[in-house]
Design brief:
- The protein is mainly alpha-helical.
- Among the domains are: 37 residues, no CATH class; 191 residues, P-loop containing nucleotide triphosphate hydrolases (Rossmann fold, 3-Layer(aba) Sandwich), CATH 3.40.50.300; 142 residues, no CATH class.
- Helix content is 54%, strand content 5%.
- One of its GO terms (biological process) is intracellular protein transport.
- Its cofactor is Zn(2+).
- This is Preprotein translocase subunit SecA.
Length: 577
């Protein structure tokens, strides 16, 4: 709502609620495609056969009726004005009601059903209204709609699919008479209304009353026809019932159906872009949820020493080649002999993290190493500061010492003194070393839980942001037409770039938090919480300290501390005095 909802809440003086976030989204079409097998049955599918075939790859088969349909479907009756049409419907209902024939009048909206209801009430015709406003009475109203003398008004939203049983003596007076007060945009809805009558070989009749002021007729040239009819002196109550008019109305409906189908098809084409991204994210997320680690094994100090020794000897380039082929979605890529020889059992999540770490090193060296050589102080170089920020200085210090260096500065001095290939390999080795040490410090079970939590949190956080971004892109992409560009192609290209950017944000989010986690004992946690509660207790005031000046006060006539050579009163005193 772009803050509009919150603005109204603030204006009305009610609590301003936090803006809602879209956690997941999918179109109905792509939701149904998730099913391995799809089928359905309806009496009005034939008019939508093309859509079923193109979107769902489903054939539409017509099953013959159980008994021959003997219902009489009359030609449409067209009136000049809506008012004249409604009067004609009331007269028709009045005439058939006197015979005792049950009548079902279909209206396209609640508003029009109430207009017809008022007109019938004025004529003294007892009737029921079925417009989804009387939920408890609807079943009873439908059950009575086929009785002798029953008159029922129903909207499009109510009563469809219900079998209206004919009462005693109804067949003799012609069965259920269905009146359509207006043609719907879709022929399928009209067929549903018509299909209430003449079921299972029963007699019945249907007729549609149309005016040139109806929405469908107005959109497709009804205004022009209305002018022509008024010029020839045709009255509002004078009907036209010609077969060609029925064909014209049907063609108008086909045009609307085609337009609506194009809109739905375009919607699916746009959602297919997001659907591909959705499948990737959901597949990875499912793999992470199902990932299992060997949490029964205990990591001992002796295991750490053995693994540190193996890390010193490991073929980093060979490991990188294996990790390049690794994918969480393909379990066959999880097997890596160089890592499986370690005492610490690397799970799929560990290997995913390690792959991202080594990719980050490649990116960092390629983007920063050349520029860093221009800076004399190693601690001010970007690559140094970013690696320290990633691993934390204490952990990096331990990793460097295990590789035989006195401190991190000496380690980086050695890296900058080597060729780029050798420097990258050494940096990757210390990354692997720090990861193994960090795992041993945290523990197997805690590490597995931590990895799951971090990765899932990042997926959920950035996927929700990505959905909002894609929605914003979708709303404005149609303007690319003005630049003679296909909006769908532009949406695909920019959507891919946004998705790639989201994946990079996920990697960065996980990596920057992974090495900053530390285990805290429950006793320490409890002590910290107790101290926090005591400090926040009301009425508790800490010991006041006297504020002392750290430097001598500068006199007005003394030289200004800024070094300008002027007196303080004529230099910085007006600013700071």
């Amino acid at each position: 709502s772009e803050g509009l909802h919150q603005a109204i809440e603030a204006k009305e003086g009610v609590e301003v609620k936090k803006e809602s976030k879209t956690m997941a989204t999918i179109t109905l079409q792509n939701f149904f495609r998730l099913y391995a097998y799809l089928s359905g049955m309806t009496g009005t599918a034939l008019t939508e056969a093309e859509e079923f075939a193109s979107i769902y790859k489903l054939d539409t088969i017509v099953v013959p009726t159980n008994k021959k349909v003997i219902r009489v479907d009359n030609n449409d009756v067209v009136y000049r004005s809506q008012e004249g049409k409604f009067r004609a419907i009331v007269e028709e209902v009045k005439e058939r009601h006197e015979k005792g024939q049950p009548i079902l009048v279909g209206a396209t909206s609640v508003e029009k059903s109430e207009i017809l209801s008022d007109m019938l009430s004025k004529e003294g015709i007892k009737h029921n209204v079925l417009n989804a406003k009387q939920h408890e009475l609807e079943a009873k109203i439908v059950a009575e709609a086929g009785q002798l003398g029953a008159v029922t008004i129903a909207t499009n939203m109510a009563g469809r699919g219900t079998d209206i049983a004919l009462g005693e003596g109804v067949k003799e007076v012609g069965g259920l008479y269905v009146i359509g007060s207006e043609r719907h945009e879709s022929r399928r809805i009209d067929n549903q209304l018509r299909g209430r009558s003449g079921r299972q070989g029963d007699p019945g009749e249907s007729k549609f009353f149309v005016s040139f002021e109806d929405d469908l007729m107005r959109i497709f040239g009804g205004d022009r026809m209305n002018v022509i009819m008024s010029q020839v002196g045709m009255e509002d109550d004078m009907p036209i019932s010609v077969g060609i008019l029925g064909k014209t109305i049907e063609n108008a409906q086909k045009k609307v159906e085609a337009s609506n189908y194009d809109i739905r098809k375009r919607l699916v084409e746009y959602d297919d872009v997001l659907n591909q991204q959705r499948e990737i994210i959901y597949t990875l997320r499912r793999k992470i949820l199902e990932a299992e680690g060997d949490t029964t094994k205990k990591l001992l100090e002796s295991d750490l020493k053995g693994d540190v020794k193996l890390v010193k000897e490991i073929d980093v380039d060979g490991l990188q080649d294996l990790l390049d082929q690794f994918s969480l979605a393909r379990e066959e890529s999880w097997k890596m002999d160089s890592l499986d020889s370690l005492n610490y059992p690397f799970s799929g999540l560990d290997k995913w993290i390690l792959k991202k770490l080594l990719e980050y090193v490649d990116f960092l060296v390629a983007s920063e190493m050349q520029d860093d050589m221009k800076i004399d102080n190693i601690e001010e170089r970007k690559m140094y500061s970013q690696i320290v920020n990633l691993l934390t200085e204490p952990l990096l210090e331990v990793g460097c010492r295990e590789l035989g260096y006195d401190d991190t500065v000496e380690f980086f001095r050695d890296i900058y003194g080597k060729t780029q290939v050798e420097g990258v390999a050494l940096l990757k080795r210390v990354i692997l070393m720090c990861y193994v040490i960090h795992v041993y410090a945290i523990g197997l079970e805690a590490m597995h839980t931590l990895l799951k939590y971090l990765i899932l949190e990042s997926f959920d956080k950035f996927w929700m942001e990505h959905l909002d971004t894609m929605t914003d892109l979708r709303e404005g992409i149609s303007l690319r037409n003005l630049a003679q560009r296909d909006p769908l192609v532009e949406y695909k290209n920019e959507g891919f770039e946004m998705f790639d950017s989201m994946l990079k944000k996920i990697d960065e989010f996980v990596l920057t938090r992974l090495f900053k986690v530390r285990l805290v004992k429950r006793e320490e946690q409890a002590a910290m919480e107790t101290k926090k509660e005591e400090d926040s207790r009301p009425g508790k005031v800490g010991k006041q300290k006297t504020v002392k000046r750290s430097s001598n006060k500068v006199g007005r006539n003394d030289p200004c501390p800024c070094g300008s050579g002027k007196k303080y009163k004529k230099c910085c005193y007006p600013k700071y005095g």
